[in-house]
Automatic annotation (TrEMBL):
Name the record gives this protein: Reverse transcriptase
Top-level lineage group: Eukaryota
Length: 133
């Protein structure tokens, strides 16, 4: 079940199929398993038969996994970090989408160097370019 037509993350799960009938069949199997294990679903949080949805900050659809544009806009409008804690926070947000950014580890290296121990915090030109990119 898992990875064939079911993805699970902590207490959330997504059931999928290549066509409507398969999706309904898979959903039936998952709901039977929930019933057999005495699991109760919160129907207010259930979204059934959707073509597109946000799962863990990513947009999932028939096209695959994409970034959520709202989160990207939020990150893009952050001011330049002024202290190490702000650099760490930015790297955490940007790193979440690192798989969608070509050469993310190379691009972010100047910022990563800022959070190293025993390094003075100097937000220089290279850090600014990395932040903007």
């Amino acid at each position: 079940m898992v990875e064939r037509f079911l993805e699970v993350f902590i207490d959330d799960f997504s059931v999928f199929g290549f066509d409507f009938d398969k999706c309904l069949h898979h959903l039936s199997l998952v709901l039977q398993r929930c019933r057999g294990k005495n699991l109760v679903l919160n129907w207010k949080k259930c979204h059934l038969i959707v073509r597109k949805g946000i799962v863990l900050g990513h947009v999932v659809s028939h096209k695959g996994i994409e970034v959520d544009k709202a989160n990207i806009d939020l990150i893009a409008h952050l001011p330049h970090p002024k202290i190490v804690r702000e650099v760490r926070a930015f790297l955490g947000h940007a790193g979440f989408y690192g798989r969608f950014i070509k050469d993310f580890s190379k691009v972010s290296r100047p910022l990563c160097n800022l959070v190293s121990k025993d390094i003075a915090f100097v937000f220089n030109y290279n850090c600014g370019r990395a932040f903007e990119k």
